[in-house]
N-acetyltransferase domain-containing protein
Amino acid sequence: MKAKVRLKRATARDADDYVRIERSVESPINLVTTNVDEARKEIENPLALVWMVLYETKNVGLVQVQMLPGKHAYLAEIAIEPTYQGHGIGGDVLRTIVAKMRRAGACTMSLRTHEQNRARQLYERHGFVVTGRLEDHGKSSSPRLVMSRKLQTEER
Ligand SMILES: CC(C)(COP(=O)(O)OP(=O)(O)OC[C@H]1O[C@@H](n2cnc3c(N)ncnc32)[C@H](O)[C@@H]1OP(=O)(O)O)[C@@H](O)C(=O)NCCC(=O)NCCS
């Protein structure tokens, strides 16, 4: 399945798919953008880089990264539709994004995830370690972990 997967920079035309994918992964520990206008704003935000994950010609996932001051890349979102999960696509996307951000000059990368989220194992396999813990995060009251990694070293 994963051989046919590639990333494409999102445009406003992808906003409907963006929302469909976000809704498909929504859960009490994963609060998402469910409004098409908001999705369009996120896609067009000049401070964010949003890619759609394509399987053949279908958008099956999305990934969003922000380049922050201090050569730091923040992985704001990664989502793969449930039907396509567990086939290595998310791992490939993460590897590609790490390489892209390294080429763009980022020295470190971080993300936030709920401590109960299974995705934590995926991030650990890709070199992220827990570097912080946020007890209170907006709409969700359960704690979230900050996970980070350096980008200068060779990829795993
Ligand atoms: C996390 C996610 C992007 C990974 O994509 P994927 O294509 O399933 O990933 P891969 O097949 O390369 O790797 C499998 C690993 O992903 C994670 N994973 C798989 N399904 C998951 C799910 N429903 N929710 C969270 N993590 C999941 C696990 O760590 C899994 O490893 P394991 O089988 O050893 O537990 C995808 O599962 C997803 O969109 N999950 C729901 C949204 C989410 O939780 N996003 C992360 C927010 S921080």
About this structure: Residues 49 and 81 are 20 Å apart (CA to CA). The pocket of coenzyme A is lined by residues 25, 30, 78-80, 85-91, 113, 117-119, 121-122 (CB under 6 Å). Residues 2-150 form a domain with the Aminopeptidase fold (CATH 3.40.630.30). The chain has one domain: 2-150.
